[in-house]
């Protein structure tokens, strides 16, 4: 089976990455990547004092418009590479802060990081309801996913609650090459369930520089080990649909 050339978790100099979006795109083309998402950090948690993030509306506007100009450029040049506009939201952020700055339909993909306890599930659910009310009752949400998800927090308690939540809200799970411990064999019970119920999965590298932009073999092997290839291909289909709809 063909190894999909996909990395949906990349940081640029708009947050704590070391590369410009331009350099990320150049390197992605030279690595033969086909689907990438720029997913810079958004947070007002403890992390905000340590790393730069998308912290003002004007910075967010510049970020989005820069990605968008590369999207048009790649299309014009008929490149195979598709670039998606993402954001990584730290679940330690306050709801008010998220609502103030993040308009969900401005993105193709939203990653939530640090879903580590059952309490974070109602947090995301209420955010989705508020976003719906504020912006659009009908439009489908962007792709929603859990960055570097650690299943260990849910194996003893809340397993089924988590699975139902992911299914009902069509939230994908990321295989992140920077956190291979989260797809270790000891979590096979979790990944068997992901396969059984058809939760989508993605591949991301958490790349902070261009050296690790195509570090995707480990996650792809894990996807194969757990027989989750179709769960990944379904996600790629959705990405292709988003790309086709883009003007
Ligand atoms: Zn990240």
Strand content: 15-25%
> What is the 3D shape?
globular
Rg from alpha-carbon coordinates: 17 Å
Quickly give the CATH architecture. Answer: Alpha-Beta Barrel
Would you tell me the structural class of the helices and strands?
A: alpha/beta
CATH C-level label: Alpha Beta
Number of domains: 1
Name the bound molecules: zinc ion
Distance between the termini: 32 Å
Number of strands: 7
Biggest sheet strand order reads: 1-2-3-4-5-6-7
Instruction: Give the uncertain stretches in residue-range form.
Output: none
Give the proportion of residues in helices.
40-55%
Order of helices and strands: EHEHEHEHEHEHEHH
Let me know the CATH homologous superfamily: Metal-dependent hydrolases
- Round the mean pLDDT to the nearest integer and report it: 96
Provide a count of the helices.
Answer: 8
Q: What is the fold named in CATH at topology level?
A: TIM Barrel
Overall description:
This protein has one domain (6-245): TIM Barrel. The protein has helices at residues 21-30, 57-76, 95-101, 120-135, 159-168, 188-197, 217-225, 229-245, and strands spanning 6-10, 35-42, 82-90, 109-113, 143-146, 171-176, 201-204. A 7-stranded parallel β-sheet has the order 1-2-3-4-5-6-7, sandwiched between helices. It has 247 residues and is α/β, with parallel strands linked by helices.
């Amino acid at each position: 089976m063909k190894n999909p050339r996909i990395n949906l978790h990349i940081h640029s100099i708009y947050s704590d990455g070391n590369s410009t979006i331009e350099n990320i795109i150049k390197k992605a083309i030279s690595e033969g990547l086909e689907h990438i998402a720029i997913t810079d950090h958004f947070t007002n948690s403890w992390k905000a004092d340590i790393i730069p993030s998308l912290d003002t509306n004007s910075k967010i506007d510049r970020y989005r418009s820069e990605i968008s100009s590369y999207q048009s450029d790649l299309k014009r040049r008929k490149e195979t590479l598709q670039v998606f506009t993402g954001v990584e939201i730290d679940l330690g952020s306050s709801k008010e802060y998220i609502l103030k700055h993040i308009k969900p339909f401005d993105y193709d993909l939203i990653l939530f990081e640090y879903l580590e306890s059952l309490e974070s599930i109602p947090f995301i659910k209420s955010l989705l309801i508020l976003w719906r009310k504020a912006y659009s009752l009908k439009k489908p949400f962007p792709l929603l996913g859990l960055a570097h998800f650690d299943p260990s927090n849910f194996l003893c308690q809340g397993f089924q609650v988590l699975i139902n939540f992911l299914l009902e809200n069509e939230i994908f799970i990321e295989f992140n090459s920077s956190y291979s411990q989260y797809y270790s064999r000891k979590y096979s019970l979790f990944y068997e369930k992901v396969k059984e119920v058809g939760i989508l999965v993605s591949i991301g590298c958490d790349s902070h520089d261009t050296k690790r932009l195509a570090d995707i073999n480990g996650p792809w092997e894990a996807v194969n080990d757990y027989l989750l290839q179709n769960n990944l291909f379904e996600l790629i289909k959705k990405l292709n649909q988003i790309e086709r709809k883009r003007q």
